[in-house]
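Example S7 (structure tokens).
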């Protein structure tokens, strides 16, 4: 049975007339429409895959494969990599409109002291201002009794900073490439600093293939494109280059070094490291300073430490180095005068 309360409410509601004016109806309609749209799931735009995020899919390598036979590990051969921090000298020809500031004499001398204290036999440098800059450095090294008779310079037209490699041991092969094509952007886009690629042979017959890089800085000036995009495109170009190099030579100890302007976890570095659990994978040398720190750059504006200067080795060289390979980050007093980056070194075997 229906109770008296239910009967009362039913009669009350049925007898009540609702009179709404036109403005009230419009307001109610707007509220209903707004409520409908607010409760709708927004349509998600399809994710735009950047060219540097695409998988590097290439045709199987069909070229010649060189079988490299390298003698067993011998005495350590130390390699040092360092950003020379705008090593500009007055006599070098300028190749762009970039306003340069000549490197101070104090900073040049400090750089020489860092190299001397490192005990390096091979040096990979970035931000060298040209042939005259290398000549100036060599002169100062000789004054300290340091002889690096073998050298290679990679300098692109339109760029005022290049890559240099100095060695006490003969450079038996130079495959450096100034103009490395980069996918995306302009039709004729190229890596800003190219790729330095040399093979060094020491007295006992051991060979080391050393590939030097300096990826796009984090500054956006003068490129017209986001710096991260440029750097990631360069990383794709580097990985494609490495794929060919590593497939064309078997048994060659290989390392990739330089200023990556990104850290180990960033996309560009991960792309260059290559696919995990394969022979194409590179491994990072986890160099540390005397305080057990890995950072190589301190950015004062954001009070942030970065590990941008890296040394990566292939599977062959990793096995030769072993688990206790000697390495380090230079933290001597002269380091802060020589450059805004800290130098990294590793003993090769």
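Recovered sequence:
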């Amino acid at each position: 049975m229906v109770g008296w309360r239910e009967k009362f409410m039913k009669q009350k509601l049925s007898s009540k007339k609702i009179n709404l004016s036109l403005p009230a109806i419009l307001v109610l309609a707007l509220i209903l429409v707004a409520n409908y749209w607010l409760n709708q799931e927004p349509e998600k735009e399809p994710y735009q895959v950047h060219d540097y995020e695409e998988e590097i899919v290439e045709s199987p390598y069909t070229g010649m494969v060189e079988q490299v036979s390298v003698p067993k590990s011998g005495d350590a051969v130390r390699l040092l990599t360092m950003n020379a921090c705008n090593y500009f000298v007055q006599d070098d020809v300028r190749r762009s409109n970039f306003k340069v500031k000549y490197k101070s004499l104090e900073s040049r001398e400090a750089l020489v002291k860092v190299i001397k204290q490192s005990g390096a036999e091979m040096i990979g440098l970035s931000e060298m201002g040209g042939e005259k800059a290398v000549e100036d450095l060599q002169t100062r090294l000789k004054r300290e009794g340091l002889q690096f008779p073998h050298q290679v310079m990679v300098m692109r037209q339109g760029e005022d900073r290049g890559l240099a490699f100095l060695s006490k041991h003969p450079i038996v092969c130079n495959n450096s490439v100034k103009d490395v094509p980069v996918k995306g952007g302009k039709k004729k886009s190229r890596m800003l600093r190219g790729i330095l690629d040399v093979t060094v042979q020491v007295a006992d017959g051991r060979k080391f293939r050393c590939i030097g890089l300096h990826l796009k800085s984090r500054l956006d000036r003068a490129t017209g494109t986001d710096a991260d995009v440029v750097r990631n495109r360069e990383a794709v170009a580097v990985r494609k280059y490495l794929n060919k190099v590593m497939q064309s030579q078997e048994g060659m100890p290989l390392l990739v070094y330089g200023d990556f302007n990104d850290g180990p976890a960033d996309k560009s570095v991960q792309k260059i490291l290559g696919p995990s659990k394969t022979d194409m994978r590179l491994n990072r040398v986890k160099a540390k300073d005397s305080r057990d720190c890995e950072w190589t750059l301190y950015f004062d504006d954001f009070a942030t430490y970065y590990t941008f200067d890296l040394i990566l080795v292939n599977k062959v060289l990793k096995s030769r180095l072993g688990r206790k390979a000697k390495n380090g980050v230079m933290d001597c007093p002269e380091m802060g005068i020589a450059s805004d980056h800290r130098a990294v070194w590793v003993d090769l075997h």
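Notes on this example. Residues 44-50 have pLDDT under 50 and may be disordered.
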